[in-house]
Specification:
Helices cover 35% and strands 28% of the residues. A 4-stranded antiparallel β-sheet has the order 2-3-1-4, covered by helices on one side.
Length: 102
């Protein structure tokens, strides 16, 4: 069963460029190494560049577990976690209601 999830967080303003670079490296890894991660988007708030939202679509629980246990996740976490501002990352699971995607 497909898993839809978001992650929201905020970082200190002096860390934005480091976090963005880490996001780009992380998504490159996912693109090459995680075919069961069907979608991974990282968005930055237009009005507050310290806020980020990541959108995930995993093929199933195995894909989510593979993603979560990767060394790339640990590397990405090592960059953004020390820079968090305003609380922890908030993960939210969703159920698809409708889509224009095939």
């Amino acid at each position: 069963m497909t898993i839809y999830q978001t992650a929201q967080y905020q970082v200190r303003s002096d860390a934005v460029d480091r976090v963005k670079m880490a996001i780009k490296e992380f998504v490159e890894y996912i693109t090459v190494n995680e075919p069961s991660t069907r979608m991974y988007l990282a968005w930055q708030d237009k009005n507050d560049p310290t806020k980020f939202v990541h959108l995930f679509e995993f093929a199933d629980t195995a894909a989510l577990q593979l993603h979560g246990s990767s060394e790339a996740v640990r590397k990405f976490e090592s960059v953004y976690r020390p820079e968090l501002d305003g609380g922890s990352v908030v993960f939210t699971d969703y159920v698809l209601v409708a889509s224009n995607q095939q």
